[in-house]
Design brief:
The chain is of the alpha/beta class. The protein has 8 helices and 12 strands. About 40% of the residues lie in helices and about 25% in strands. Helix 4 links the parallel strand 4 and strand 5.
């Protein structure tokens, strides 16, 4: 039985989630503040955390980095897109906005838990019409293929893994540092430009979008960028 930690200072919502998730066969524990959540995880590691953003004391954003290795679904009444993006890039597995339908929340919980258990071949990533083989440093599009440099491959792997999400420049640099420690913020633009060109030649579309002042996004939809 999977254990879910519900972190929400709203007693009514907390109770609703407990009753719903218990009825779906989950074990539920509750915390009403950021500090209580940290103590609960230290006492018993849950399989998933439902985390409210606005908590007394430590906020959801402040304690999120402490839950590495545990999938976290952020639950919040705030709808700002960039705030959602920041939380997803900071480690959240998903984000659901209040008010929500309990059926949707349960579905999201099951999907996150399912994805966590699904074995992944980390050397191959598929996104839209593209498949990246990081062992071969090659990207495939149908029967066509293109060789990538080590840095281009590292960038493509991160962007494709975060498909349809904006990845901040500094975040991208940090994530590829293990594979390409010499890449800088200035040279990153050149590598992304070259990668974008190779992918465009394969598919006939621009699948990498530069989001001004923030970073880059890989579009999984063939309809975008044509």
């Amino acid at each position: 039985m999977d254990t879910i930690l519900v972190v929400d200072d709203d007693v009514a919502i907390s109770k609703l989630l407990e009753e719903t998730l218990t009825g779906e066969g989950f074990a539920v524990r509750k915390a009403y503040s950021g500090t209580e959540a940290l103590m609960a995880v230290a006492a018993e590691r849950p399989d998933l955390i439902l985390l409210d953003r606005m908590l007394p004391g430590l906020s959801g954003e402040e304690i999120l980095p402490s839950f590495k290795g545990i999938p976290v679904i952020v639950v919040s009444a705030r709808t700002d897109t960039m705030e959602k993006v920041d939380l997803l890039l900071s480690g959240a597995a998903d984000y659901i906005t209040k008010p929500f339908r309990v059926e949707e929340l349960v579905a999201r919980v099951r999907v996150v838990l399912r994805d966590r258990r699904t074995p992944q071949d980390e050397s191959r990533i598929s996104c839209g019409e593209f498949t990246l083989d990081s062992n071969l440093h090659t990207v495939f599009c149908g029967k066509a293929e293109a060789k990538l440099t080590r840095t281009e491959c590292a960038i493509a792997k991160i962007l494709m893994s975060n498909r349809d999400r904006v990845v901040a420049k500094l975040t991208l640099l940090e994530l590829i540092a293990q594979d390409t420690p010499d890449c800088t913020e200035d040279s990153l633009k050149v590598h992304v430009h070259n990668l974008r060109k190779k992918l465009r030649e394969l598919s006939g579309r621009d699948c990498i979008t530069a989001v001004w002042g923030i970073g880059f996004r890989f579009s999984s939809s063939p309809e975008e960028g044509r």
